[in-house]
Amino acid sequence: MVLRRARQAGVSPAVILTSPYTRAQETAEAAAEILACRKVVVTKALIPSSSPDRVWNEIAKIAAPSILIAGHEPLLSHFVAFLLNCPAFQVDLKKAALVRLDVSISETHPNGVFKWMLTPKVAGP
């Protein structure tokens, strides 16, 4: 339901990045179909033991205007905090949640602005 609500809201990523793990790839494939995204990239930067810096470096290589990430906790929460420049910030990402951040790049660090979070509970049946 989260992906359908996202589609209704106009979410259409240019690229979907996914971990090589099966569950993340299944999620990425479902998102690609529902959100009409034609490019899915599998990356080891999204394995659970990775780091926010490594994820950011992977995104920087792609340079797409909008990217959806299918990955794992706690890496995704740490990555959101990294983009918000709040390493101590606790992000409680639920399974199947979508978070939108607008990110600009400074000379030293990405700077994210939190826009919204859509959880399965909020998306409804």
Summarize the structure.
With 125 residues, the protein is α/β, with parallel strands linked by helices.
Keywords:
single chain; 125 residues; alpha/beta; 3-stranded parallel sheet; 5 helices; 5 strands
Description of the structure:
By secondary structure, the chain is an alpha/beta fold. Helix content is 35%, strand content 22%. It has five helices and five strands; from the N terminus they run H-E-H-E-H-E-H-E-E-H. Helix 2 (22-34) links the parallel strand 1 and strand 2.
* Low-pLDDT stretches: none
| Average pLDDT taken over every residue | 91
Biggest beta sheet summary: 3 strands, parallel
**Morphology:** globular
How many DSSP helices? 5
SS class:
alpha/beta
What is the beta-strand fraction?
15-25%
Helix proportion range: 25-40%
Radius of gyration: 14 Å
Order of helices and strands: HEHEHEHEEH
Ends apart, CA distance between termini: 7 Å
Number of strands: 5
Strands of the widest sheet, in order across it, are 2-1-3
